Amino acid sequence: MEGQKNRLLEWVKAHKKELIIGGVSASFLISIILVIRNKGSIVVIRDSLNNNIEKIPIKVPEALQAVPDKIIHTKAMVTDIIQPTETISIINTNAIQDTFEVSDHIRNLHEGWYASAEKIAIAAEHGYDLKPGQTWVDMYTKRTVAA
Q1: Mean pLDDT of the 124-135 span
Q2: Which residues cross the membrane (predicted)?
Q3: Domain membership flag for residue 84
């Protein structure tokens, strides 16, 4: 019995590389088979995860909530980075462009988002008490293009 055990250990040591390659190959082959058989379930899970990722609220740390200027400055920096693309030149210049003003209003925010202290103060000046998850939107001009 002891001799058989020693021979087995010697054989394993002598064929270590082949055993590792065979084990990895078998594992890979089984994984591929499982993926092919469960492709529909994997697609459903992937789509569900993508939908949930879009709904994850962005939580503003309390340190930044107390300093709304930093939040506003950060947003301005991000929009400054965006460069116009060549697709803008595709817009039909003969199209009818109409502008209209959107009045001041309260906007509901995504879950977990908060209004800045500045927007809360402006809403109070207009006689509104913002609830959690709401912010104040100042009047702005919007443009529509009709072909």
Answers
A1: 89
A2: 20-36
A3: no
* Domain identity same for 104 and 52: no
Residue with tokens 């959107």: 102
Q: Confirm if 135 and 109 have CB atoms less than 8 A apart.
A: yes
Which domain, by its residues, includes 21? Answer: 1-60
d(CA 17, CA 14): 8
8-state DSSP, 90: G
23 pLDDT higher than 90: yes
Angle, CA 116 vertex, CA 111 and CA 119 arms, to 5°: 110
Domain count for the chain: 2
pTM flag (> 0.90): no
Averaged pLDDT score across all residues of the chain: 77
Please list the alpha-helical segments (H only) found in the chain. 2-14, 16-37, 39-55, 62-65, 68-81, 117-125
* Three-state secondary structure call for residue 98: strand
